[in-house]
Amino acid sequence: MLNCPVCGAQAPGNMKYIKLLVCDHCKTSLFLEDEAVKHVGQKSAINAAPSIFELGRRYRYRAMTFETIGRIQFDYGDGFWDEWWVQSDSGEGKWLSVDEGDIAIETPVELSEVLGNNQTLPDCEQLHVGGKITLGKIQLEITEIDTAKCVGVAGLLPEVIFPDEEHSYAHCSGAKGQIYTLECFDVQKQLFKGSWIDPFDIELF
Ligand SMILES: [Zn+2]
């Protein structure tokens, strides 16, 4: 069991895969390694705009039940959107992107299963809207490229991100309504795969 080194509050139970924890009591960011606090960061606050989700609640989407365990809020200039890190009852982690009524569900892609031999992900800056990229056997069309600034974080997250950090991303469309997001930050790149979902298919569980 982990306690916040700043205020002593007890952190929630399951720290597997978690790299960043925001203390629910004093809002200090705690960076974890091997399920122990490695570094204490600044306080983090989220813009309290209403959202379809609340942290620490359980929801159902079709056959999947999940709990919202972390949240990253981004500012893209004209507004905010939220990335909710959720854990399904089967133990899978997924991102739910909520931009007002638009919700996408995405899962991190294991790059070794997708990319061809010696292939790496492109840089977001090398791409342009309307362009096409091929990753292994997957053909994608770039639909949007932008950068967004992290406003704040809450809960438990599988990645380390700081307020004011800017991430570049490219949204891509694949076959059969699939969407992919390429995220670039410094030399780190991640690929996510998912689809749009209907907000009316989500219910409290
Ligand atoms: Zn604390």
Description:
The chain is mainly beta. The chain has two domains: 1-43, no CATH class; 44-198, no CATH class. The chain has no helices and 14 strands. Strands 5-6-7-8-13-12-11-10 form an eight-stranded antiparallel beta barrel. Zinc ion is lined by residues 4, 6-7, 9, 23, 25-26, 28.
Order of helices and strands: EEEEEEEEEEEEEE
Portion in helices = under 10%
Trace the largest sheet across and list its strands: 5-6-7-8-13-12-11-10
Domain module count: 2
How many DSSP H or I helices?
A: 0
Task: Give me the secondary-structure category.
Answer: mainly beta
Terminal CA distance reads 27 Å
Layout of secondary structure:
Elements: E1 20-22, E2 28-33, E3 36-43, E4 58-61, E5 64-75, E6 80-88, E7 93-99, E8 102-108, E9 132-135, E10 138-157, E11 166-173, E12 179-185, E13 188-197, E14 202-204
Antiparallel strand pairs: 1-2, 1-10, 2-3, 4-5, 4-14, 5-6, 5-10, 6-7, 7-8, 8-13, 9-10, 10-11, 11-12, 12-13
The protein binds zinc ion.
Zinc ion binds at residues 4, 6-7, 9, 23, 25-26, 28.
In short:
The protein has strands at 20-22, 28-33, 36-43, 58-61, 64-75, 80-88, 93-99, 102-108, 132-135, 138-157, 166-173, 179-185, 188-197, 202-204. With 205 residues, it is mostly beta strands. It has two domains: 1-43, no CATH class; 44-198, no CATH class.
